């Protein structure tokens, strides 16, 4: 049973080539109320994730056979499953690269299991839309861009018909904040608080990486609605 007030049980896939670390993570996440499966490398992780559709993948970067970055790249071809990267490298470039590949969060080893559990909860919370009041719009619109906050899907309406824009959980949450108030300038701190939850610390460069990926996906659809407000943050053109 889950602890009172905890996130509802999720099915997680933990991927690391270190069996001892996998055991530690399985124990911590299981105690937090989750069902945990394990994989030893990226190739095994991709196979399991596509076959079993977990709610979230905890994915180490440095592994034999197929590393975590390549595994995430393969997953993103067919799945939007949230990914929390683990890495022994604390370089900012590695962190940004992981997020550019489609990761939702990034933890540097060594880390506490309490911190990992908190990060997993935060990502799962973003992946599970909250119930909305009857008078709240279930679909946000800005020009030809539509965001269905109940189905957690984004669309661009073209003359030939709508085309879905596949977003990660974090990308969706950030775009939802921007689309909720077109024309309003948000600081990076405000975007983080609204998309991740109050008190969540996110490096500016990490947030910028997520916004850059959203922009790239929308530009592929012929749209460029996100403006940079220099010295402040971002806004969606009204």
Give a short synopsis of this structure:
The chain has helices at 19-31, 42-52, 68-76, 92-100, 113-127, 169-180, 188-196, 204-219, and strands spanning 11-15, 35-39, 56-60, 83-87, 105-108, 139-142, 145-148, 153-158, 161-165, 186-187, 226-229, 233-236.
Could you characterize the architecture of this molecule?
The chain is globular. Helix content is 39%, strand content 22%. It has eight helices and twelve strands. It has helices spanning 19-31, 42-52, 68-76, 92-100, 113-127, 169-180, 188-196, 204-219; strands spanning 11-15, 35-39, 56-60, 83-87, 105-108, 139-142, 145-148, 153-158, 161-165, 186-187, 226-229, 233-236. The strands form three sheets. The chain has a five-stranded parallel beta sheet, with helices on both faces. The model is unreliable at 1-7 (pLDDT under 50).
Features:
238 residues, alpha/beta, Rossmann fold, Arc Repressor Mutant, subunit A, 2 domains, 5-stranded parallel sheet, 4-stranded antiparallel sheet, 39% helix, globular, disordered N terminus
What order do the helices and strands follow? EHEHEHEHEHEEEEHEHHEE
Tally of DSSP β-strands: 12
Beta-strand share of residues: 15-25%
CATH homologous superfamily placement of the largest domain? Response regulator
CATH level-1 class of the largest domain: Alpha Beta
Arithmetic mean of pLDDT: 87
Q: In angstroms, what separates the terminal alpha carbons?
A: 46 Å
Question: Main beta sheet: strand number and arrangement?
Answer: 5 strands, parallel
Domain module count:
2
CATH architecture of the largest domain: 3-Layer(aba) Sandwich
Radius of gyration: 18 Å
Class by SSE composition = alpha/beta
Low-confidence stretches: 1-7
Strand order of the largest sheet: 2-1-3-4-5
Count of DSSP helices? 8
CATH topological fold name of the largest domain: Rossmann fold
Q: What proportion of the residues is helical, as a percent range?
A: 25-40%
Based on Cα principal axes, name the global outline.
Answer: globular
